[in-house]
Amino acid sequence: MAHATVYVGFTLPQLLRSASRIFPTHSALVVLRHSAFCYCTVNSTIKSKRKMDHLERTANNFRQEVISQAKVCGITNESETVKRLRLAVANKDFAFKAGQWVDFFIPGVPVVGGFSICSSPGLLEREGVLELAVKHTVHPPAYWIHTECTLDSEVALRVGGDFFFDPQPGDSPVELVLIAGGVGINPLFSILLHIADLHGYQEGKGNGYKMGTVKLYYSAKNTSELLFKKNILGLMNAFPGKITCRFHVTQQRSWICNELQPHVTEGRISEKDLEKHVSKDTLWYICGPPPMIESISKLLANIGVPSNCVFFEKWW
C-alpha cells in the first residue's frame, strides 16, 4: 500500500475561543503519515447505558490538528429527513481524503458533531467547498442544522477518520465494491465521486492512478430515502461500465419511477449479489448501521473474501 505524507498546521477559530475547553489551545506543526487504504471499526461488544458521544467514540481515530473556520453557503433538502449543507472553508491548508468525516463545532452548542463528508476532495480543491448530508435527529448538532442553521452561519471543522480511499499514482489498480445502508451512503458517495474524478483525470491526462471498476450496492427502506440517487445515475451515465449501482429497497410501498426501475431490487443485499465480485484485486467498503455491517461482513467471510480486503465504519 502506498503512503501519503501530509503537513498540517494548527489554527484556532476566533468564533470558538470561548469553547477552548473542547480542543487544544496551543499552536503546533505536525507531520502525519497514514496509509492510503484504511478502515475504522467500533467494538460492538461494549455495553453501556449511556450512548457515547462522537468525540468519545472516535477518540482513538486519526485526527488532523488543524481546525478551520467554515461558512454555510448552501442548504438543500436531500430528502424529507436529510439536509445537505455546502460549506466554504476559509483555511487553504484544509484537506481530507474521500471517506473521512469532520468534527463539527457550532458556536453556542457544547456538543461536538461528527458527520461524514459526502463530497469529493476534488470539489474542495477546485471550489474551496465541501458538503455534508445530515439526518434530522434530536442530537444537538444535527438538530441545530435542521432548525437553526442558515446561509452564512459560521462553524468550524476538523478532519478525522481512518476509513478512506486514497490511491496514489504508483499503486496497483483495484476493483471496488461499496456497500451502503441508509445515511451510511455519505462516505461511500465521497469515494464514488473521487473515483469519478480519477476516471476523468485518467481520460483527460492519460496518466495518474489507473482506477478499476466500482460497483455500489445501496440499501434503504424505500426509494425516497435513497440519497444522491440522481447524482449516482448521472455518474453511471458518465462512466458506463466503470461505475455501476444497484439500489435495494426493503419496505417499498409506492410505484418506482421509470428512471430508477432498471436499477432497483426489492429485498436485501444477498450473497448471490456479492459473490460475483470476489477476486484477489477487489476491495470492499461498507458503511451503515452496525447490524448491517456485521451481517455483510459474515456474508463476505462465507464467500471467501479475506478480512484484510474488507473496510468498514460503524457510526450508530
TrEMBL record:
Keywords: NAD, Oxidoreductase. GO terms for molecular function: oxidoreductase activity. PROSITE patterns: FAD_FR. It comes from the Eukaryota. InterPro entries: FAD-bd_FR_type (IPR017927), FNR_nucleotide-bd (IPR039261), Oxidoreductase_NAD-binding (IPR052128), OxRdtase_FAD/NAD-bd (IPR001433), Riboflavin_synthase-like_b-brl (IPR017938). Residues 65-192 form the FAD-binding FR-type domain. GO terms for cellular component: mitochondrion. This is Oxidoreductase NAD-binding domain-containing protein 1. It comes from Nipponia nippon. The lineage of its organism: Eukaryota, Metazoa, Chordata, Craniata, Vertebrata.
